[in-house]
Amino acid sequence: MRFFIALEIPSKNLLQFKVIQDKLHTLIPQAKLTGLEKIHLTLAFIGEQPDELKDRLTQVITAAASAVSSFEVTPAYIDGFPNLHHPNILWVGVKGDIDKVLLIRERIKDGLENLHLPVDERRFTPHITIAKLNGNLKITKELEVNLEKLMATPFDPIKISSIKLFESTPFNGFHKHQTLAEVSLA
Description:
By secondary structure, this protein is of the alpha+beta class. The chain has a single domain (about 1-185), classed as Alpha-Beta Complex (Cyclic Phosphodiesterase, Chain: A).
């Protein structure tokens, strides 16, 4: 199975991402938008591992959620990987209870290391991927200003009340996500 651990965005918050994506697509028509059903905040990508690992990964998530209460994050800005000026990925950064996101992320990393699984050591920035681009697009100053304007309106806070273990499976040239386990926060 191809596993990842993430914070799912509740359906009531997805409309604001659709609005952002619709405006983004007007600015960058070649952008491949992330399907609304796949909008999430990844905490750890685990990759291809034996199916039997599911229960142990659920235990890692349970330990990471221990004594962490529900919290809120709010969409705040647009950025890109590897950077905004030459992005392969465009994403929405969040503000709010970031300390809780970082705490959960560190606990998950520790749990994955204890299972002798590879851990991404790059600096973690809580983000929600909204589009993929071919690497040939250069974001001009004018386009950057227009992207900033997309985020100028106030957004509803996103209530995070659980952590999920997902399976990502190939489907018609894309991937679909299926929830394997969900651990509620305190």
